Amino acid sequence: MSSVEETETTEAPATDDLRAGILAAFESELGDAVAGSHLKPNEDLWIRVDAAAWLTTAEIAKHKFAFTFFDYLSAIDWMPSPFGRYEDSEVDTPLSEKLNQPWTLETGVAGGDTRFQLLARVSDVRNRHIGVHLKSDVPDSMTMPTWTGVYSGADWHERETWEMYGITFEGHPDLKHIYLPSDFEGHPLRKDFPLLPRVVKPWPGIVDVEPMPGEEPGEGDEETADAEADG
């Protein structure tokens, strides 16, 4: 009788020559200014550059690598919210205590060394039909060069980012409010900006609701708990 040997087959790691080539091209142009990268084959590419190279990166992306379509620009605050999720935050803890808690910096793909990062996406829509995410750590000065001279569409995106995160874009032609009154204090998308109505009053999601008609108080609690556990 012949014996049949069972062998384990392992799939070869996915490759993405197009995005790998784009990453290599940026690395060749920017050198050590490329601080990190992350390539997810056949899905997306993230490239993080030094703040000093943020403007140069935009110029290279558009004029040398044909990423002529500007998609968006925004920011990320990697600070964990001192308020937790408002649905289950401790509403009786004084605000001053919440804001002074120590925290550890944890950033997303391509890494990061600062609490705030800029994130933008540009695309080549004519030839390769592909986009790339560009990231940069925001320095303590909270100032970055504007992209408006390269991508005019960055105008309103930078205004919104300045308004919501407090990041100033040096050279922007008209950095003014879009949503908020001119005398508004604070930046609502920062993690340490308190949404006061939720701080001083429990979130409605954790407050017992009134029973349905015909139910006794607490009658539906067990069924609700079972449904949440299953869901």
Cα-to-Cα separation, first versus last residue:
52 Å
Largest sheet: 5 strands, mixed
Please provide the count of β strands. Answer: 7
Low-confidence stretches: 222-231
What is the architecture at the second tier of CATH?
2-Layer Sandwich
* CATH class value: Alpha Beta
Estimated share of beta-strand residues: 15-25%
The domain count comes to 1
- H/E element string? HEEHEHEEEHEHH
- Computed over alpha carbons, the radius of gyration is 24 Å
**Looking across the biggest beta sheet, what order are the strands in?**
1-2-5-4-3
Helical amount among residues, as a percent range?
10-25%
Which structural class is indicated by helix and strand composition? alpha/beta
Overview of the structural elements:
- The protein has 231 residues and is α/β, with parallel strands linked by helices.
- The protein has one domain (17-203): Beta Polymerase, domain 2.
- The chain is 24% helix and 19% strand.
- The strands form two sheets. It has a five-stranded mixed β-sheet. A two-stranded parallel ribbon has the order 6-7.
- The longest helix is centred in the N-terminal third of the chain and has 14 residues, at 17-30.
- The model is unreliable at 222-231 (pLDDT under 50).
Notable characteristics:
about 230 residues; alpha/beta; Beta Polymerase, domain 2; five-stranded mixed β-sheet; 6 helices; 7 strands; about 25% helix; disordered C terminus
